[in-house]
Every structure is written in C-alpha cells, then in structure tokens.
C-alpha cells in the first residue's frame, strides 16, 4: 500500500527540510490539542467540588484560548509545508513527464495514444500530488496522532475505558485491507477509460471537418456516448467501493461512543473516574473520530496514488529507441552524406521498407527522391533524422555513422518540412521564429519571400500577428506549407529536407520557391522528395524508388534518356500541364 511513498523517496529526500518541519509541526499540534480537553475536565471537576474561583475560571479560559491561538499558528506552518510540497511534486512530475516525452521517438507515440498520455500528465499526476500532500496528513493523523490521543486517554483517564472503546478498531483495519485492493484495481481501469475518452475527444475535434463533410455527427456522438458511458461505469465502480469507507468507519466510531459512554458511566458510578474525566474522555474520543476516518482516506489515497504513479512510471521508465552512444564522435559540419548498402525496416513492418540503398551526396548538392506512393521516399529522408534504430548497412555524415553522432548535433544541422505541416496555435511570426528564436521582422520577411508567402501575407487580417489557429486551421493547405517552409528557411540549416513540401502550391508558386532555394542555398545540402518532377529537375542527383529500392538514378537529363519510370512520369505530367493550360 505504501509503495507510492517509497517510489517517491527521491522527492522526500530532496524536500527533507520541508517535510521535517511540516511533520514535526503536525505532531506538535496533535500534542497541544490534548491540553484543552484536559483543562476543561479539571475545571468541571473543580466546579462539581465547588472549589473553583473566578480567578481560576478566567485562568482556565485564558489557557484554552491561548492554546487555540498557538495551535492556529502552528497549523498554518504545517499546512503550508505539506500542501506546498503537494504543488511542488506536481510541477516536478509534470516537467519531468513532458521533458521525457520530448526525448521519445516516433515508435513510442505509435504505441501510446495522445489522449492516454494527456490523462497521465493531468489526472494521474494530480492524484500523486494529493497523495504527497493530503496523504501525508492522513498518514500522520491515522498513526502518530491516533497513538498520542489513545495514549492520553489511557494514561490521563483510564486504560480500561480506553481498551474497551477501541475494541471496534480491528473491524476498520480488516475493512480497509479489503477495500484498498478493490480501489487500486478499479481506479486503474477508470484512469485507462479516461485516457480513451481523451483520445476520442482529440480525434473528434481534429477531424470535425471530415465528420461534418460525411454527415457523421450522430455516429460520432453515439461513439462518444458509448465511451463516456464506459468512463461513467468504471468511475461508479470506484465510487461504490468509496461509499463503503465512511459508513464502515461511522459504524465503528458509533460502537466506540456507545462503549465509551456506557462503560464510562459505570466507572463514574463506581468512583473509578470523575465526571470531568468522563467529559475529557468523550472529547478525546471525538478527537480520534478523524484519525479513524483518516485510516480510510489513507488507504484510498495510497491506492489511487499508487495506481497513478504506476501509470506515470510506465512512461518515465520507457527508454527511447534511439539514444546517444557512450562513444560519440564530434563532427564539425556535414560535408558528405553517404548511404552504403543501407536496409531499414519499421518496428511494425513485416518487410524491409528500404533495401540496399547506396548513394553519396556532397555538401552543396541537391538530391531529388521520386517514386510511386509507398515506395519509401519519406522513409529514405527520415533516416537522416535518426528517429529509429538504424538497420543494416551504413548511413554516415562526414564519414561518421550517424549512430555515433550526438542526436542534438545531428538535428542542429537539419531543417525538416514534413508532408503534414504542424503549426502551433500562435501567430504567423511566432511560428516562423520557432526556426530562429528572436529573429527580427526583416529576417522573417526574407524567409517569407523565399517561401513565396509574401503576397499571401497581405491577405491575412493582421499580417505577421495573425493567429493561425490550432494546427494552422485558419490557413489554406498551401499557406500552411509556405509558413512551414519559411520556418525551415529562416533557420538556414546545413541540410534541408523537404518531404513533399510543395504538394499544395500551384506550379507557378512552386517554380518561384524552387528558384529561391537554388539561389539562397548555394553551398548547402538539400534533399527533396516529391511527386511533381518539376520540383527536382535542377537536382544534382535524382533517385527513383520502388518497394524501398533504387531502380533508377542520375540527373534529370540522364533519367529522361533511360526511358524508364521517370521518363514515363515526366511525359504524363507534361501532358497534364499542357491540357490544363
């Protein structure tokens, strides 16, 4: 049950001072709270005996009020310490979780749904933080505070009366063990269901245009209704166990009161304790009601926190498929890119996605990659990003295998524009500055002109300050591509990878962008995968892929002479252009 605290040992060691002060103050408050009932009991005994004076009565009242003031101040200190620690662990875990996601490779996100990761980053981390704050309070109150009150009841009042009053406690312990196991299992299932619901919401919101275009609103509502029903059922299963905690404890507390009052009156009648003792005892008995409840809360919180921490640790303990090797080699700049007999297969694939690729690209050259859909164009370009473990053969930069080059160093050379453009819910300026933080407006406009987006910029309501919406929803496909291109151009990377990044622009705009690339990227390496051959006619080297293998290679003119797939595709596209014109 307490494995969650053991697994969070790193945090408690880090915040040792905070928790030492907080727990000490919490225990001190528990001890001080024993004094007012004892003073009240003494005052009642003196009143019964008729020996109380007005001065003594004022002293009793002043003593109780003074103790309450001291307790108030100390309570503020321990609450600030414990619940401040709760907020702190939430911040640390969330930062650690997010930083860890930044290191993960695509295969991790293929295995884990976004909605489930969001659930772990929100609900689960929150459950752990509650365990660290309120959980520590219930731990102390259900153990130390409970023991101190019982000790006071036994020593200051009557050990026989105390023993009789705590007879129902074993019932609580037994019930908590049974309920705790059920809570852990059911809460894990409920959190998994919450992750499924998150994922469905993300898909529905992202695909709202498609849903409406195919008139599938009712079907999507039904699908979401089914998921929410599942979340409801699983949370209700947790609530049904939760509902047993309080009645069980109230029943046991009620038994304690009945035993305490009945046996206490018997002891008063036989002069073994005084009336004041019985009043004090009943006040002490009232004080252990919360610790009894705290036992139930403790079991509940520890099981929930443990289930949530297990889900968080499952992600944090997942290691990236690609990591920096211990024997890294520093490379100053990418002078050459070489594929030598490179064969690669995705982890989820049943066959090789690249087969025996051989090619060499020198600094300043442009490589064009073409082929049918699914032939491996994107896969070939992504090999330079080193997002997956390399297969057989060698992929080297400046003669050094990329699996020996530090990942940060490798990625610092590369500007990448994927097929599906990702824009952030920020302004056009901020999206472009992502490639070069703090870039001036003049530099931004130069990148925009290179991407042939300067004319479109004037049509936007607020120019560079226009919000593009989530994933660039307020922009057209061609505009999103050119903002993504601007982001890559402004970084001035040594290696620019364009993965079908001109598919949404017209032929005239494409020609302008290609001319700008040739002008501005002299002396730098560019790799372009495309379906439109006009985008790579200028390339120093063009390769044609089929089923992951190179079937043709050469310059544009050389490939036309080969009369193969490239020539056939070129003639077809030329005919289509003539018909469109």
UniProtKB/TrEMBL annotation:
Segments forming domain ABC transmembrane type-1: 21-304
Transmembrane spans: 21-37, 57-78, 127-151, 157-179, 249-269, 281-301
Molecular-function annotations in GO: ABC-type oligopeptide transporter activity; ATP binding; ATP hydrolysis activity
Gene Ontology terms: cellular component: plasma membrane
Pfam families according to UniProt: ABC_membrane, ABC_tran
Entry's localization field: Cell membrane
Keyword GTP-binding: no
Domain of life, per lineage: Bacteria
Topology with respect to the bilayer: Multi-pass membrane protein
InterPro entries assigned to the protein according to its UniProt record, in alphabetical order: AAA+_ATPase, ABC1_TM_dom, ABC1_TM_sf, ABC_transporter-like_ATP-bd, ABC_transporter-like_CS, P-loop_NTPase, Type_1_exporter
Keywords on record: ATP-binding, Cell membrane, Membrane, Nucleotide-binding, Transmembrane, Transmembrane helix, Transport
Domain ABC transporter, chain residue ranges per copy: 337-572
Protein's UniProt name: ATP-binding cassette domain-containing protein
Naturally occurring in which organism (per UniProt): Paenibacillus spiritus
Source organism phylogeny: Bacteria, Bacillati, Bacillota, Bacilli, Bacillales
């Amino acid at each position: 049950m307490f494995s969650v605290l053991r697994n969070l040992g790193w945090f408690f060691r880090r915040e040792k001072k905070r928790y030492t002060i907080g727990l000490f103050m919490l225990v001190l408050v528990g001890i001080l709270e024993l004094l007012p009932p004892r003073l009240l009991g003494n005052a009642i005994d003196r009143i019964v005996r008729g020996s109380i004076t007005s001065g003594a009565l004022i002293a009793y009242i002043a003593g109780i009020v003074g103790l309450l003031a001291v307790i108030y101040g100390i309570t503020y200190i321990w609450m600030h310490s414990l619940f401040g620690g709760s907020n702190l662990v939430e911040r640390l875990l969330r930062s650690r979780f997010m930083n860890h996601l930044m290191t993960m490779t695509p295969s991790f996100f293929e295995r884990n749904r976004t909605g489930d990761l969001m659930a772990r980053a929100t609900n689960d981390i929150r459950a752990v933080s509650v365990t660290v704050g309120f959980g520590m309070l219930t731990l102390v109150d259900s153990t130390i505070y409970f023991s101190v009150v019982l000790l006071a009841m036994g020593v200051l009042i009557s050990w026989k009366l105390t023993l009789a009053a705590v007879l129902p406690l074993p019932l609580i312990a037994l019930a908590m063990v049974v309920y705790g196991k059920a809570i852990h299992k059911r809460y894990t299932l409920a959190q998994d269901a919450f992750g499924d619901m998150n994922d469905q919401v993300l898909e529905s919101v992202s695909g709202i245009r498609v849903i409406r275009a195919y008139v599938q609103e009712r079907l999507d509502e039904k699908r979401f209704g089914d998921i929410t029903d599942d979340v409801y059922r699983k949370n209700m299963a947790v609530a049904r166990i939760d509902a047993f905690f309080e009645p069980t404890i109230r029943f046991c507390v009620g038994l304690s009161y009945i035993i305490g009052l009945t046996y206490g009156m018997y002891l008063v009648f036989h002069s073994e304790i005084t009336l004041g003792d019985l009043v004090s005892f009943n006040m002490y008995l009232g004080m252990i009601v919360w610790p009894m409840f705290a036992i139930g809360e403790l079991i509940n919180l520890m099981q929930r926190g443990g289930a949530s921490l297990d889900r968080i640790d499952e992600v944090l303990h997942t290691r990236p498929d690609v990591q920096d090797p211990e024997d890294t080699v520093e490379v100053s700049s990418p002078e050459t890119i070489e594929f030598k007999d490179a064969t690669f297969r995705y982890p989820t694939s049943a066959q090789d996605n690249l087969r025996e690729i051989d090619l060499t690209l020198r600094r300043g050259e442009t490589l064009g990659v073409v082929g049918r859909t699914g032939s491996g164009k994107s896969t070939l370009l992504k090999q330079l990003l080193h997002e997956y473990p390399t297969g057989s053969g060698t992929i080297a930069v400046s003669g050094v295998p990329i699996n020996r080059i530090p990942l940060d160093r490798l990625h610092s050379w590369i500007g990448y524009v994927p097929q599906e453009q990702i824009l952030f819910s920020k302004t056009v300026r901020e999206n472009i500055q992502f490639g070069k933080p703090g870039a001036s407006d003049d530099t931004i406009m130069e990148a925009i002109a290179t991407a042939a987006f300067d004319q479109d910029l004037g049509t936007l309501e607020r120019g560079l300050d226009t919000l593009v919406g989530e994933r660039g929803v307020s922009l057209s496909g061609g505009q999103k591509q050119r903002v993504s291109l601007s982001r890559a151009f402004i970084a001035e990377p040594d290696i620019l990878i364009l993965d079908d990044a001109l598919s949404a622009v017209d032929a005239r705009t494409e020609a302008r962008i290609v001319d700008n690339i040739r002008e501005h990227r002299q002396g730098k390496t560019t790799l372009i995968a495309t379906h439109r051959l006009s985008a790579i006619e200028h390339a120093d080297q063009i390769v044609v892929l089929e089923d992951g293998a190179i079937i043709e290679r050469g310059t544009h003119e050389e490939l036309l002479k080969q009369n193969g797939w490239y020539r056939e595709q070129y003639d077809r596209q030329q005919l289509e252009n003539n018909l469109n014109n």
